[in-house]
Amino acid sequence: MSINKPILWNFYRGASWRVRLALSLKKIDFEYKSVNIDKGEQFSKEYEKINPNNEIPTLQIDGYNLSQTMPIIEYLDETRSSEPRLLPADSYHRCKARSIAEIINSGMQPYQKIVKRLGKELGEEEKTKRLEMSTKKTLKAIEAILAETSGIYCIGDGITIADIFLVPAVYTTRLQKINLNEYPNILKVIDRLDQLPEVIRTHPKNQVDFQPN
């Protein structure tokens, strides 16, 4: 296993926050490498050698180049036994934690990316309407799971991969000015997560490449 400090190629916003948060929770020190997707830096020849799919984030760790946030976080949990364990030991709870993460990862995020890219064709009003519809559908599905599984956090009283995915998703929701009072279980969990030093430290506004809107 390499003793070199891991390198995270990422951007201050978006899915990169998930990996920053996982690294912070696992107390893994890493080097922050900014890839400005607004300027198309993910398509540079240098970065393409690291990630041929030209996506962020990429985590260089243990001599490997790891991509996609779900498998990156699972790799960290499987290779670093330190608490918290991001994937619950109980099979049912592990399934539910992954379900919440996937609702966000495979449902909410891809659809919203497409809508944003079609923004000019759809018009601002229709774009906003579709984004809000997608977000509320995601929140409703997560709220239903949390009604059964939540304690202090999404799955009982331990932080899991579900919480890691929920934090950036709710951040996006707040940017859309969606009222979270309709989702009391989400609000209860996120209020506690927002107070964690790891969440504060990895927040987009606290990154070196942060750009105010």
Query: Which segments are poorly predicted (pLDDT under 50) over 5 or more consecutive residues?
Result: none
Biggest sheet layout: 4 strands, mixed
Shape category: globular
Structural class by helix and strand composition: alpha+beta
Number of helices: 9
Identify the strand order in the major beta sheet.
2-1-3-4
Mean pLDDT: 92
State which percent range the strand residues make up: 5-15%
Task: List the SSEs and their pairings.
Layout: E1 7-10, H1 16-25, E2 31-34, H2 45-50, E3 58-61, E4 64-67, H3 69-79, H4 91-117, H5 119-122, H6 124-149, H7 161-175, H8 184-193, H9 197-202
Parallel strand pairs: 1-2
Antiparallel strand pairs: 1-3, 3-4
Explain what the structure shows:
With 213 residues, this protein is of the alpha+beta class. The protein is built from 9 helices and 4 strands. It has helices spanning 16-25, 45-50, 69-79, 91-117, 119-122, 124-149, 161-175, 184-193, 197-202, and strands at residues 7-10, 31-34, 58-61, 64-67. A 4-stranded mixed sheet has the order 2-1-3-4, covered by helices on one side. Helix 4 (91-117) packs antiparallel against helix 6 and helix 4 runs parallel beside helix 7 (161-175). It starts with 6 loop residues before the first strand and ends in an 11-residue tail after the last helix. The mean pLDDT is 92.
